[in-house]
Design brief:
2 strands, about 90 residues, two-stranded antiparallel ribbon
């Protein structure tokens, strides 16, 4: 029973890492959790910052030139600072 829970929690931490778009990736965090502990994998995900380049590519986002926050490609106005994009600034 403990082995099943260990594997299940490792999968959950790996999926969470993949959804958070951290640099290490979900597969790496899954194996770290599986080998060492799901708690260690949890700490890796908590302490990691999202990989902005991956988020821009995978989630179709762009970086605001004024405040550098990530926003959706379709946005005409930055929700963080209010910067308004021109039509030619769309990616």
């Amino acid at each position: 029973m403990i082995v099943i829970l260990w594997i299940l929690f490792s999968i959950v931490v790996g999926v969470w890492a993949d959804n958070k778009h951290i640099h290490a990736g979900g597969i790496v965090v899954f194996f770290v959790s599986l080998i060492f502990s799901p708690f260690i994998g949890f700490l890796v995900v908590i302490s990691s910052k999202p990989d902005e380049e991956k988020m821009i590519k995978d989630m179709h986002m762009k970086k605001c030139p004024k405040c550098a926050e990530l926003i959706k490609n379709e946005a005409k106005k930055c929700k963080h600072c209010g910067y308004e994009f021109d039509d030619y600034e769309q990616k």
